[in-house]
Amino acid sequence: MTVGEQRLSSGFNKITVQDDPRALLPLLKSQLPHSIPLLRRLQHNLAFPSKTARLLTTFPGVEPPSGPWLAAYVDLPRGRETQMTLYSSLERESVDDDDKDPAVISTLHGPPETLALARAQLLALLSYTKSALLPGYLASLTAPSAFLIGNLHTGLMALLKQSGIYTDPETVPGIRIHRYDNPPYVKYLFRTVHSHSPSRKLDTGLPPGYRFQDRQGRMGVLPHHYALVRSRTHLPRSDETLSRIPGVAVYVDRPGEGEETPIAWVFLGLDGSLATLFVELEHRGKGIAEALSRGLMQRGMAEGGIWREVGEEGEVWVHANVLATNGASRRVLEKLGGEVGWTNTWTVVELQS
Q: Could you say which architecture CATH assigns to the domain 190-341?
């Protein structure tokens, strides 16, 4: 365990690099569903370790303080993909009825001194990332000294603004925001059914003429389909990433033989969220998106998989992100039983000297 000094005017100055991220799993599980982006990202890294990933916390050891705390998974060499996922304990303590309205931007609640401490923790963590982790990453790059933070609670994002308001263009001193989502994404939460083994057989739920396997009995999105997947999304993922996340594909019965191309697919991303859900236009409106998503949650959250240990009890959570303005995708998630949790954003943040 490494402790770094990051002195701020608030007096908060210690960031810990956790040597044993697995030891933090019980704490993050106790914070579900609010901690789900960070928990799932950490679990994925335990299954597919990255030598450049770090788990940072604002406290030493595995026992958090009684006041607010923050933890972050950081892997800067991920480049165009999400480089940082953050969680603050204030997210769990700031739930109110307004969070169920996707038109309302989620905020953090607490006395001014509590919010000031949370802001200091966030700035200290960003400062540590810049001073201790960024130089090694930039040694072989010419990119600006900024990093992409994903699944960032809009209340935490607001702490980087002068007024504490998410939409305020004025940031706190030393921070430059290159981009963020306005309106933000809406976080949907799902409690999935328990599956006791990572069975290859899925409950179909597909209309007649559609199937989860190609003619050769192969399931999922195959490597030679990755280019097709990338061509249908504005959020590119590398072949390496796509090969390390669970995916489900749908094929349609057609005359002839030979290689088939899927007409729909969906993945569970590195953070365990429903991602890259796509159905070709001529096949929409048939319930394929819903069947795909249910099949993926059944397969991806099976016991003994990446995100659920053998014998693990309790609720199994899945999450998804969709823009508040994307009515079609929101309807799909609501048909699946998704409930609005909070709002979040993907942002590119630069700490200026």
A: 3-Layer(aba) Sandwich (3.40)
